[in-house]
Amino acid sequence: MAQQRIITDPTIANGSPVIKRAQVPVHQILSYVATGMSFQEIIETVPELGLGDVKAALDYAATQMRQGMPAPTGNQGSNRDLAFEQPSNMLDLNKILVVDDSQLNLDFMEAIFAGGEFILVTALDGREGLAKARAEAPFLILTDIMMPGMSGLKLCQEIKADPLTKDASVIFITAHGQNTTLVAKGLNMGADEFISRPFEPEELLARVQAVARLKRAELDAQRHAQIVARHNQSLELLNELAIAITSSLDLQKVFASAMQQLSRLLKAEAVSILLLDGEEKKLTVNIASHLGEYISVPVEVKPTPEMADVIQQERIPAIISSILHNPQINLTVKPPADQDAVVCVPMVSKEQTIGTIALINKQGSSFTAGDWALLNSAVNIITVAIENARLFTEVQEFNRHLEQKVAERTGELITEKKKVEAILVSMADGVLVLDDENCISTVNTAAQKMLGADSSKLLGMPITSKRLATPLWDTIRKLASSIEVIASASVDVPDATRPGGLLSIQARSAKVHTETGQTIGTVIVLSDVTSLMEVERMKARFITGVTHELKTPLAVIKLHSNNLANYHTRLPELKRNQLIQAIQEQVQLLGKLVEDILELSRLDSGLVEIERQPISLRQVVAQVVAEMQPLAAEKEITLRWQKSSPEILIQADKDKINRLITNLIDNAIKYTPAKGSVEVKIASELVDGQKMVLFQVCDTGIGIPLGERAQIFERFYRIDPSHTIPGTGLGLSIVKEIVTAHGGKVTVNSPPEGGSMFTVSLPEA
Ligand code: ADP
Question: Which residues contact ligand 1 via a Cβ below 6 A?
Fold first, then answer.
């Protein structure tokens, strides 16, 4: 195989291309192909030729034709277009048949034509003349009219009726004065001329040459007409092929259509298209047969080294027996044992071989050079169609890829947007986004609540709208029109959840800029700072309270100590003792104040650990009541406590509970006038399914107005218009902190009989 492919490109020798290695003219090989000889027969006829040489000659011819050059032929000059298929009934333009029953006349004719350009064939009667006309294919028949047996007229009739001889010209030779009716009859039967005896040899020669010229012209015209018809047919076939295969951009459909069309047009039993996979250098085989079969599942075959070599490097036709005998390819139409009936051409696109097309077995005959030429043109069209389909597939692939990317990105953006929306919705702060024209583009749930309006009404609305007429909108407008990049302002607005209550809103604005510094909008954040403000207020009150409460005892101490210092010698002892006692009381008060402040700040800071331990509430209460009895006795107040109270255990900090009980009993005694009574109780009960411990202090004292029951637990809050009852205003704040730290609650009520009733509920251990 490799040796058969040793090919030297046909070289031009004496104006005619030859296969250099074999020294055989290309046109000779083409003429063998044109007669329908198989490749094998050609090699057998010319032993110097290899199979590759034959194919190289065909390739050369095909290239010439593709470039619009006539294929090389042996007949240069007037016959140069006679490239491939010659007419089968071709006449010999040098041969003349003379039919005459007189040997003398025949001898005379031979003498006239001797040594000239024409070869003379003679016959002594019509029947012999007819046989020789059929066998020798003369272009001209000169015949006598009157002959025994078959007359000249009958001979003319037979010749014109036979397709083999009908194109030959007939000239009658008549005797002088012969019946002119006969001559007319002969001419009607298709004879071209007549000549009367006696004639001059020059006259005969001139007439014969004229007929020969006419015949040549006629044959030329016929051949041209045939060539044109063949070209037209080829063009029609190619057009059909082009329409069929370009009607789809699907590669598999292009394959199927191309293979079916080639199989039909070139009468191939099977057609294969092999595409070279650029990456893996693999061939994908697609095969169709004239039976309409199409192996649609492409079979991947690794090309044999020879095949790859042929296809990729030399780009010349190849016979690919290895593919055809591949067991993977199950063809109903098996190729013959010899590979002659396989014609393979490469598909070349942009100087790259992209694959091959092979025709296998021509139905009923062998492939001709005409088939070859047609196949070469068809391959060009198929190559373009395949390339288009491939490009289309690539573009589609690219589109799909792009669409997928866009979908992914859109998905990401939607997720991101949803995330931002979720954050905005769940934000405690109100967020308002304005566009560059100060129209509302975003308003989150918190902002809607603060502004008291629904987003459906607000979105798209300019903030300058007269409908937005509240102090908060005034603040927003002020911030939006500010030239500051970041600005803030505070405003109090009615609290929709607390009738009569106010919300303190702090509004902060920030301009949104592009990378180039252009302002494209404003973001306004509305924060509810009500509780913050409340803390601030409490702090301020605390400091004022502390200062005030410290000042009063200090002023008393200062006054009394000054009096003592200045007048102690003049003051009677009783007075001096009174002053000293007053100073001691104030010092005690100061000490208590400082102690309370410290206790509260410890509780506030969270530094104090609540040391829980199981304690007996009855025991703690009994102990405090016992300690407080002298104080009550001083004011003749009855302090009652049932010693038989139930034993109740709580998990609590003993010192803190002690402090809590002390503060409540101390207040009850303090705010109950002399001779009143104070009662202390403990109990256990179920509240919402949970066991709770109740500790209650009930007095018959001055009581607490309804409107001030919530405030008495605030720091430094006191109700003592007469300023006669000493106190810090911190006792109940401490009670509340201790109760809260133990997970309990403290409430105050007024019993119907007057006085106050404080109830502490704590979870039971
Ligand atoms: P103070 O040192 O003034 O007693 P508290 O925080 O203990 O401070 O009490 C706050 C205020 O609550 C008191 O000033 C008083 O007006 C009121 N109060 C507390 N306990 C009683 C009570 N048992 N009866 C009437 N008023 C009370």
Answer: 667-668, 671, 699, 701-704, 712, 717-720, 727-733, 756
